[in-house]
Every structure is written in structure tokens, then in C-alpha cells.
UniProtKB/TrEMBL annotation:
<feature type="domain" description="GFO/IDH/MocA-like oxidoreductase">
    <location>
        <begin position="149"/>
        <end position="262"/>
    </location>
</feature>
<dbReference type="GO" id="GO:0000166">
    <property type="term" value="F:nucleotide binding"/>
</dbReference>
<comment type="similarity">
    <text>Belongs to the Gfo/Idh/MocA family.</text>
</comment>
<dbReference type="Pfam" id="PF22725">
    <property type="entry name" value="GFO_IDH_MocA_C3"/>
</dbReference>
<dbReference type="InterPro" id="IPR000683">
    <property type="entry name" value="Gfo/Idh/MocA-like_OxRdtase_N"/>
</dbReference>
<dbReference type="GO" id="GO:0016491">
    <property type="term" value="F:oxidoreductase activity"/>
</dbReference>
<dbReference type="InterPro" id="IPR055170">
    <property type="entry name" value="GFO_IDH_MocA-like_dom"/>
</dbReference>
<dbReference type="InterPro" id="IPR050984">
    <property type="entry name" value="Gfo/Idh/MocA_domain"/>
</dbReference>
<feature type="domain" description="Gfo/Idh/MocA-like oxidoreductase N-terminal">
    <location>
        <begin position="15"/>
        <end position="133"/>
    </location>
</feature>
<dbReference type="Pfam" id="PF01408">
    <property type="entry name" value="GFO_IDH_MocA"/>
</dbReference>
<dbReference type="InterPro" id="IPR036291">
    <property type="entry name" value="NAD(P)-bd_dom_sf"/>
</dbReference>
<keyword id="KW-0560">Oxidoreductase</keyword>
<protein>
    <submittedName>
        <fullName>Gfo/Idh/MocA family oxidoreductase</fullName>
    </submittedName>
</protein>
Length: 344
């Protein structure tokens, strides 16, 4: 990105966004949040279905609707793009966006594997643009609260983490999550949440994983359910499960030697959900809910990184490490064996 471009963004006082595609996550969650955020504005939307793109643009009062992603990337008034495309397209369009001088917020998982993530990070570094993986929950203030409780010793020494994220879309056979070549499956879709949370809470990288999964022939042979153990140093572990063919659950529990922390609706909290519940010293303490939109906070944190006001909270290297862990989990599930990280 040129110095002139940086100055232009600064003067505008808003990061101007283009949205590549009209996926449900974009239209129902991310776009409304960008529109409601402090430092961002929706400038354009692109869809290969022109009518759909225009309808979305009209809904949000966006002046520009493009019939191709390439057209949007050529727009000089776009500073950053959000990519909610199917997983197998993340690498292609992140690199094209970077080459066009656009900052990139890419939906999770950032890629299909660690090598793709590395190539995306390298392309963005060469272009001098910010790249971030869209894990909105990490921008919620409850995360800093939880990390403070754990690192401050309120629950003693960390012993174990338990996390679950499941839902049931088994009847939706046309869903892109059921296409293995597109990066379908529950580990890619929702397993990444407890996996990233464990890495964040422990502040370290895992040593090994063992995962058992249900690969369903009637659902493209993607993993419709997976349960696993992720080993960290010092005997700490994450026991997790994720699925697309199970009752809805969205939970996280952090266990220490002197207490524990429950995080209700851990990754997608509903309004009024407590930030967390702390059990320590024989007492139960409820941390009251923070009335925030975590998607808006994600957009504002991204904008501050682009403006150079604050360091990027989660650099691209974090996304690469996350993909290494996901790869190891998938390998373990497919080959029915324990996989050591760094020796897959």
C-alpha cells in the first residue's frame, strides 16, 4: 500500500469496506456490524449474482454493487475487503486482494491448510496490507476478562479445558459445508473455535492430538462430528467436540487447581449472557454481560491496526499455527492415530 493511500484512509477517518460475496454470515452478521461500528463504513459489495448483490447493497444503503469480485478489487475507494467465500476460495481471493492493495479480513478457517495460510500471509506482507482471520469471539471483552482470571491465578494452576460447538444441519444436503473439496466438515466449520480458544488460554502451542470423527457417506464423507484430545505442555489438555449432526451446544470450561470458569454461549453469546461464571474459594461469582457486538469490535480492532493506532491483536502467524493444528486433527481422525505436532 502506498503512502498516499495511507494518508487518504487517515483523512477519511473511516476504513472503507468492500464485501466479496453475499454469504449469510456476511449479510446477517458482519455487514450490519461494520455499518454499526465506530471506524468503518460499507462502500461496496460484489456478487456473481448481480441481482442478489444489488438487493444486498440496497438493504444496507451501499452505493456500489459489482457483478464480479475483480471489479470491486479495482475500485480505488475500497481500503479493505471482507472475504466470506467458501473455504477453498480464501487463498485465491486473499492473494488477489493483497495484490490490489486491499487489507483483508478473511473468514475462518483462513485456508485449507497451513501452507496455504503461509502463502496468504506472505502475499499480504509483500503488499504491505493487514491480514486477519475472522474469529469474532476473540474481540469480545469477556476474553480479556477470562485471560486475566486465568493468568492472575484466581482458579489456581491451569489443569484442563473443555470446549464444545455443535449444531445440526444434516438435512441440508445442498450446504457447502458438506463438500469436502470446498473445505467442508465440522472441524473446519466449528471445531476451530475451541481449538483457537485453547491455544489462546494456554498461551502455547499443542504437542499432540488424538481425534475420533464420524465421516458420513451420505454427507460427502466430511466429518459430521469429531471429538478429540489436544495435549499441551505440563499435562494440560483440551477435550473438545464439534459437530454438524448434533444438538446445539456452544460451551467452554476452564479448570484449575482451585477453581473453574464456565463461559456460557462461549463463541456466539446472546444478549444478556454472562461474560463468565467463576467458581473459586467456595464461591460462585457471575461476571455480568458486556453489551457489545463482537463483530463490530472485530471490525474496529482491524481498522485500528490498519490506521497504525494499535498493533494487530492476532497476526497472520497465529492463523498459520491454527491451520497446523486443524491439519493434525484431520489427519488423526482419518488415520485413527495420535499425531504429534511438527511430525505429521
Amino acid at each position: 500500500m502506498t503512502e498516499t493511500s495511507k494518508i487518504r484512509i487517515r483523512i477519511s477517518n473511516k476504513l472503507r469496506w468492500g464485501i466479496l460475496g453475499c454469504a449469510n454470515i456476511a449479510v446477517e452478521a458482519v455487514m450490519p456490524a461494520i455499518a454499526a461500528s465506530e471506524l468503518n463504513v460499507l462502500e461496496a459489495v460484489a456478487s456473481r449474482d448481480v441481482a442478489k448483490g444489488r438487493a444486498v447493497a440496497e438493504r444496507f444503503g451501499i452505493a456500489k454493487a459489482y457483478g464480479s469480485y475483480e471489479e470491486l478489487l479495482r475500485d480505488p475507494d475500497i481500503d479493505a475487503v471482507y472475504i466470506p467465500l467458501p473455504n477453498h476460495l480464501h487463498k485465491e481471493w486473499t492473494i488477489k486482494a493483497a495484490e490490489a492493495g486491499k487489507h483483508v479480513l478473511c473468514e475462518k478457517p483462513i485456508a485449507l491448510n497451513a501452507r496455504e495460510a503461509e502463502e496468504m500471509a506472505e502475499a499480504c506482507a509483500r503488499a504491505g496490507v493487514v491480514l486477519a482471520e475472522a474469529f469474532m469471539y476473540r474481540h469480545h471483552p469477556r476474553i480479556d476478562t477470562i485471560l486475566g482470571l486465568v493468568r492472575g491465578g484466581e482458579i489456581g494452576e491451569l489443569r484442563a479445558i473443555r470446549g464444545s460447538f455443535t449444531f445440526n444441519n444434516a438435512e441440508d444436503h445442498a450446504n457447502i459445508r458438506l463438500r469436502p473439496e470446498w473445505g467442508g466438515g465440522s472441524l473446519y466449520d466449528v471445531g476451530v473455535y475451541p481449538l483457537t480458544a485453547a491455544r489462546l488460554i494456554t498461551g502455547s502451542e499443542p504437542e499432540a492430538v488424538t481425534v475420533h470423527a464420524l465421516f458420513s457417506p451420505e454427507h460427502g464423507n466430511v466429518d459430521m462430528m469429531a471429538s478429540g484430545l489436544v495435549e499441551f505442555a505440563g499435562g494440560v489438555s483440551l477435550a473438545f467436540d464439534c459437530g454438524m449432526w448434533a444438538d446445539y451446544r456452544n460451551t467452554l470450561e476452564i479448570v484449575g487447581t482451585k477453581g473453574r470458569i464456565e463461559v456460557p454461549e462461549s463463541f456466539k453469546p446472546e444478549p444478556g449472557t454472562p461474560d463468565c461464571i467463576v467458581y473459586a474459594n467456595g464461591q460462585r461469582r457471575v461476571i455480568e454481560p458486556s453489551p457489545v457486538n463482537q463483530y463490530s469490535l472485530q471490525a474496529d480492532d482491524f481498522a485500528r491496526a490498519v490506521f497504525g493506532e494499535t498493533p494487530q491483536r492476532f497476526a497472520p502467524d497465529d492463523a498459520v499455527k491454527n491451520m497446523r493444528l486443524v491439519e493434525a486433527c484431520l489427519l488423526s481422525a482419518r488415520e485413527r492415530r495420535r499425531v504429534t505436532l511438527g511430525n505429521q
